[in-house]
Amino acid sequence: MKNIFKTSLAVLSLVFFSACSNDDYDIGDITTPSNLSVTAAVVGQTEEMPNGDGSGAVSFSASADNAMTYKFIFGDGFEEVSASGETTHSFNENGVNDYTVTVVASGTGGASSNMTTTVTVFSDFSDPETKELLTGGSSKTWYVAASQPAHLGVGPSAGEGFTAPIYYAAAPFEKAGADVSSCFYTDEMTFSLNENDNIIYNYNNNGQTFVNVAYTGDFGGDGSEDQCLDFSNTGDFSASLSPSTSGLPEGATTGTVINIAGGGTMSYYVGSSSYEVLNITPTTMDVRVIPGNDPALAWYLKFTTSQGGEEEPEEFESQFNTEIWSDEFEGDALDTDNWNYEIGNGSNGWGNGESQYYTDEEDNVKVENGNLIITAKREAESGFDFTSARITTKDKFEFTYGRVEVRAKLPAGGGTWPAIWMLGAAFPEESWPGVGEIDIMEFVGNNPDRISSALHFPGNSGGNAVVGDTEISEATTEFHIYEVEWTAEKITFLMDGVPHLEFDNNDSTPFQEDFFIILNVAMGGTLGGNIADDFQESSMEVDYVKVFQE
């Protein structure tokens, strides 16, 4: 992140006005703070830079007899409560500006004294990268990253271990399932840009906020533990970015703090509205916040853009981006310059006990409306009860390494077994599994919520194959993209751009030679399982097959 600072030679002024309540007012347990004093030091102030270093930061120190807490009202829409009377605040309006700061010292029984000071300070801070990632350039909603370890934690704010939540770190979904804490995972935090390119923060707690034990009494809690409580501080707030003054090492922080005006909070309430951004990506954000009641502590929070708290995976970056071969099925028939038909049932149902007979009939394989359609049907053929189709690029297109991308919608029905896969080009002259098999996608109609990918090779074949799977929704009603990224060092399987299986490739595997592509819909067999009694027909529709290399 980039922090930009400039300097100015305008004159610093500190003007104090006293306005104390009746210092002699002492009835019963009511004790009014007296002898209130406030000092302010502009960070980076020198003779050459009398208004500071451009960070806009000012350190305040307040003290009073019989004071329990100090409330700082900074005059820029922000407030902070400090038990120690020590705080540092960053003023964010660019340029040299005067701010009237009021400090309220509170004693017992609600009695208070106050003092007002004016500070003149220069600010010129900018972090466009964090601003873009935070708002998405327009609007972005964040949620607690409930699935991540340490999505809530606490540690020291200074000294040994002050960069991590070494005192406590929540386990994944630790706060779920209990009325006292489950509201923590329903918060919605939206950062947007208005017409003036200023940040607007919206907090939606869906009725309750998870409140730190020290503050539960302020919202009707019993003070015994952290609790989900009614909390009125929701809605829209002004927000701004400022430089950090925490002293965290460069590698542990972006150096930027999110400040939320009006006492706004990012989910877990600890009496502070300033959150240091430790790390931020398009889908994740880690922050650190010093609680208003205990400056010796630092609380840590993890957020994600994925509703439900699951962290979104980072976008997969392919190293293959040049299309070298494709079929987008734009004609009115299968292009036999690209594809072969395989006919029959093979040996023992293609080695898997499959129940279909593959044909080249239009009822089983055709090109229509820009899609390849492979249809499995309940019909008798050559002694088998089902027909379907299987096509390959053997001897017509074979390649080593690259990315294969197939957009397809899958057939429905118990017993259907569609596959998008590859075999080593030496087959059948060389036997399986020695030639290797790369299963880009396999789907079982009897288990319609998952797809799988696999690698078969000597020592890892059949039931001992390298297999990975992932959840899928609407596989039979919506198109999805199935991919494999294949290099000499690694084979990665993806669905809709998200990896679900990685394999460390090496020279000992057969995955260093040419392979060809296969598309088919099988019925039954070792993986397809029982065929539904009411099954009549269902189709796999393929929008395109594309192969990319460097």
Question: Notable features of this structure?
Answer:
Immunoglobulin-like, 3% helix, 37 strands, eight-stranded antiparallel beta barrel, single chain, 3 helices, Jelly Rolls, 550 residues, ten-stranded mixed β-sheet
Concise account of the structure shown:
This protein is mainly beta and 550 residues long. The chain has three helices and 37 strands. Strand 33 (480-486) and strand 34 (490-495) form a beta hairpin.
Q: Total strand count, please?
A: 37
Please give the share of residues in helix: under 10%
Average pLDDT metric: 89
User: What fraction of residues sit in β-strands?
Assistant: 35-45%
* Structural shape: elongated
The level-1 CATH class of the largest domain = Mainly Beta
User: How many structural domains are formed by the residues?
Assistant: 3
Q: Gyration radius, to the nearest Å?
A: 33 Å
Determine the number of helices (DSSP H or I, runs of at least 4 residues).
3
Textual characterization of the structure:
The chain is mainly β and 550 residues long. It is 3% helix and 44% strand. The protein has helices at 128-135, 349-353, 525-528; strands at 15-19, 34-42, 57-65, 69-73, 79-82, 86-90, 95-106, 112-123, 139-144, 152-156, 168-169, 188-193, 199-204, 208-211, 227-230, 235-243, 256-260, 274-280, 284-289, 297-304, 322-327, 340-341, 356-358, 365-368, 371-381, 384-388, 390-392, 402-409, 416-424, 437-443, 450-456, 466-471, 480-486, 490-495, 498-504, 515-523, 537-549. Strands 21, 23, 24, 25, 26, 28, 33, 34, 35 and 37 form a ten-stranded mixed sheet that branches. An eight-stranded antiparallel beta barrel has the order 9-12-13-16-17-18-19-20. A seven-stranded antiparallel sheet has the order 22-27-36-29-30-31-32. The longest helix is centred in the first third of the chain and has 8 residues, at 128-135. The two termini are 32 Å apart.
